[in-house]
């Protein structure tokens, strides 16, 4: 009887896993590895697990997978819109991360990532993550890779955003602190906002995307400060988003004025069912007096 139950459980888990494979993206040939911080953990820094975590959730969490150093498949990744952040970041690909002393903080340089370090690491010492709406029952899927688009090396977010089951987003995200063991936040008050070099493909005259920021007021996974930008498909553009463009969303931010003491930044396609091809060649902070150095 025990062998029959074990066999049945294995079949059910296999069927559940197969159901999460997207039709539009090829199945990865590498062994499954956990996608950094994509599984649901407490939002207090990711250092503790939620009470009641069980074997089924552990299995689902393990299905968030990362490919080789130049490709991250997060078709099975799970995470709320903002997902957990902070805590220890792991090297889950074949890329090599430099010693911490070799990096310059994004607050010192103004640069979060210029794609000069091996994927998925940022040039400021943090790490990119890919996150979908799967944990809340959504059906969006996608991949995150490092590619050359129109002569620019970039992170490329490809995916399908589905509004089924109250879902509706895919995103690339990174924490910002060079040393979370000292402080998970960075103080960007000396800058005037966020600047990105972005490119997209699409069928509309202008495609819409979001930047989501998290600061100490964001104590829930669905809490953030958000703003939307539009770009024309097929053309690289530089987008500047001032701090006063970011509006609070969810418990905490809705009742708290925004302060750019930041934990995390995410580039998001949300709220609209569509195919997504979004490339980011550079992201950082800007000052009205001078650009951050290239």
Task: Describe this protein's structure.
With 294 residues, the protein is mainly beta. Helices cover 10% and strands 32% of the residues. The protein is built from three helices and 15 strands. It has helices spanning 2-19, 55-62, 106-109, and strands at 71-73, 111-113, 128-132, 141-149, 152-161, 169-175, 186-187, 193-201, 207-214, 224-231, 237-242, 247-249, 261-262, 264-270, 274-286. Strands 1, 2, 4, 5, 8, 11 and 15 form a seven-stranded antiparallel β-sheet that branches. It has a six-stranded antiparallel β-sheet with strand order 3-6-14-9-10-12, with no helix packed on it. The protein has a two-stranded antiparallel sheet with strand order 7-13. Mean pLDDT is 76; it is low at 1-69, 75-79 and 83-94.
**Helical content (DSSP H or I, runs of 4+):** 10-25%
| Number of DSSP E strands | 15
Output mean pLDDT: 76
CA-based gyration radius: 19 Å
**Beta-strand percentage?**
25-35%
Query: Globular, elongated, flat, extended or rod-shaped: what is the shape?
Result: globular
* Order of helical and strand elements: HHEHEEEEEEEEEEEEEE
Characterize the largest beta sheet: strand count, sense, and whether it forms a barrel: 7 strands, antiparallel
Give me the secondary-structure category.
mainly beta
Distance between the termini: 65 Å
What characteristics describe this protein?
294 residues, mainly beta, seven-stranded antiparallel beta sheet, six-stranded antiparallel beta sheet, 3 helices, 15 strands, 10% helix, globular
What is the structure about, briefly put?
With about 290 residues, the chain is mainly beta.
